[in-house]
Amino acid sequence: MSRPPNYEFQEWWNKQRSKDPADDQFSPSTSDDVRFLTVNIQSPESAVAAAAAGKDRSRSARQLSWIYLLKLNRIAHSLAFVTSGFITLIRTANRRIATSSDRQRSDSKFYKIIKFFLIVSLCLLFVELVAYFRGWHFSPPTLEAGVEDWVEYIYAKWLEIRANYLGPLLQCLTNVCIVLFLIQSVDRFILVLGCFYIKIRGLKPVAEMEYQLDPEDESMNPEDYPMVLVQIPMCNEREVYQQSIAAACIQDWPRERMLIQILDDSDDADVQSLIRAEVQKWQQIGVHIIYRHRLIRTGYKAGNLRSAMSCDYVKDYEFVAIFDADFQPAPDFLKSTIPYFKGKEDLALVQTRWTFVNKEENLLTRLQNINLAFHFEVEQQVNGWFINFFGFNGTAGVWRIKALEDCGGWLDRTTVEDMDIAVRAHLCGWKFIYLNDVKCLCELPESYEAYKKQQHRWHSGPMQLFRLCFVDILHSKVSLAKKANLIFLFFLLRKLILPFYSFTLFCIILPLTMFLPEAQLPFWVVCYIPGVVSIMNILPCPQSFPFIVPYLLFENTMSVTKFNAMISGLFRLGSSYEWIVTKKLGRSSETDLAAFGENESTPLLEGGVSKSSSESGLAELNKLEITKKAGRKKENRLYRKELGLSFILLTASVRSLLSAQGIHFYFLLFQGITFLIVGLDLIGEQVS
User: Fold this and answer.
1) Which is nearest to 656 in space by CA: 115, 168, 117, 124?
2) Which of 512, 562, 502, 560 is nearest to 534 (CA)?
3) Catalytic pick among 264, 265, 324, 412
4) Which of 107, 268, 338, 571 is most buried, by the most CB atoms less than 10 A from its CB?
5) Which residue out of 264, 324, 412, 418 is catalytically annotated?
6) Is position 265 annotated as part of the catalytic site?
7) DSSP letter at 428?
8) Which residues make beta-bridge pairs with 351?
9) Where is this region: Disordered (predicted)?
10) Do the Cβ atoms of 241 and 333 come closer than 8 Å?
C-alpha cells in the first residue's frame, strides 16, 4: 500500500522555492567562487519585483547601519557621562580626604567596632573568593571525606565552625530583630489606621469660644483676652532673629494683654547688639517686648526658659507661648490656640504643626519633610486625639503656666527638656491637645552636619530621660494603661527598639548572613516589609512618592547616628549631654521679611518709628554679615562611620554576588552606595 502524499511538505517546499534567490541556500549566488548547477526560470515581472526587493533590502541595510551608529553614539555618551561622574566623585573624595582635619577624626569605641567589622568582612571575602575559584562553593570539602592540602583543611574547618556555632547564634539574633521589626511595623500600621479613622470621621478638637477677628469691632473688650507671655529663646541666631521677633510682635492680640520676652543667650557681642536694637525698634512702636541676656549660660535652653519664668511679673500671666528663633507664627496664632483652654482646666498644652519654608531646597530637606510630615500628621494627631498625650516639640506650642509650675518647671537634666516636661506633666494628670490645622512656619537644616547633630540630640535625650524617670513612672498615680503606654510604646518601642533593629538588622546582620549563609534573612524582610513601611511613612506627604527609594536607603543610613545616640544616652557615653544649636540659614527671612516690610509701613509705623531706622539696621546687619563671612570658613566633612559601613556593605554585596542572591545583592549594593554618598557629605548643602 503506497503512502499518502504529504501535502504539508509540498506546500512548505513551494514556499521555500518562491523565496528570493538571495535568501535561498539552493539558489544561484552572485559570488564568483560558488555556483550551483541549477536553473532559475523567472518571468520578467518577477525579475523586476526581485530587483526592487533587493533595492529595498540595500536601503534597509544602510538604515540599520545608521541605527547601530546612533546606538553606539548614545552608549559612548552614556559611558562618558558615567566616567565623568565617577572621576568627579573620586576628585571630590580625594579633596575632602586631603582637607579633612584631625579634629574630624573619630576615635570613639563605636568607630573602632565598625573598623573591626570591616577588617573581618575583608578577610572573609578573601576566603570566599579563594573557595569560589577552587570550586568549593559547588562541592564544599569536609573533614570526613578527606582534604588535599592545608588550605582545604582550613576552609573545611571554617565551614564546620560556621554550621555548628556561628550560624545558629546569628540566626537567633536575626529572629529576635525580625520579631522587633514586625512589632514596630504593626505599631506603625495601627497609627496609620488611627489617622485614617480621624480623617474619615472628621474628628478634631473643638474650642468652646472664638475671639473676634475684627479689631475694629467695638464690642471687643481687651479684658476678655487672657494674659499671654511669648518667649523666644535664641543663641547666636544672626540669620533668623528678625523674622521671629517680627512674627511675635504682629500677633493679633491686645498689646496690653501680651508681653514678649527675647531670651538671648548669645556669646557674640555683635549679635547681642543687633537683637537689642531690633527689640528697641519694636518698643518704640508700642509693643510690649523686653530683652533678657544671661551672663552665665547654664542649662542651655532649659536654663534660659527657667530663668525667664523666675521673673516676678510672670505671676500676672496665665499662658506662655514658646517659639524657637527660626519660627514664624501666623498673626492669628494666639487666637487659634488660646480658645481651646477655655472650659478645660486640666488642659496643659496646645501644640501646633510645623511647616517648612525650605522643604524643597535639596534632597536632604525633602527626606526630612517626609519624616516630620508623618510625625505630625500621624503620630502627634493620633496620640493627641486618643490618649491626650504626646511629646512636646519644644516650640510652636502654648502652655498653661500653672501646669508648668505644677510639674516642677524646666529642668536641664537632659538634652530634651521639652519631652522631659511633657512626661512630668502627663504623670501629674494634665492633658494635651494637638492642632493639625494650625501651622507654624520654620526652617529645616540644609547641611548633613547640622541634621546629624540635631538627630543625635533628639535620640540621645529620650534615653537619658527614660533612665531618669523610669522609677517615677512606676510610682506615679496615673493608670496602669498610661504607665504601659509610656514605658513600652513611647520609650522602648519608638525611641529604643526602632534605632536598634534598624541598624542591627540592615547594617550588621544582613552583611554577616552573606558570609555566614547558615543564617538566613528572608527576602521579604529585606524587600517587602521595608517597602510597605516606607509607603506608610510617605502617605502624609504624597507629593514625595518619587523619593520613596532614596528615603528608605537614607533612613537606614541615619540608623547609624540614631543607634549611636541611643546607646550613648542610655549608658551616658561620649557627648550624650552635648547641646548644640541647630544651624539656620535664614531661608524664611528671605521670603517673609519682605511681607513684614510691606505691612510695617501702614499699621505698625504709626507709633513714630521712621523707615530710615529700619533701613539703617539692615545696613548694619549687612556690614556685620560681610565681616563674619570673611572670617568664617565653611567646608564639607568626611564621616568615617558612614564610610566604614559603606565598605562593609559593598564587601558583602560582592559576596552575595558569588552566591547569586539577587535581592540581597541589590539592597547591599545600593545601601552601600548611599552610605558612601553620605560619608563623603554629598547630600545636603554643598560648599565649593
Assistant:
1) 124
2) 502
3) 265
4) 338
5) 418
6) yes
7) T
8) 397, 434
9) 1-31
10) no
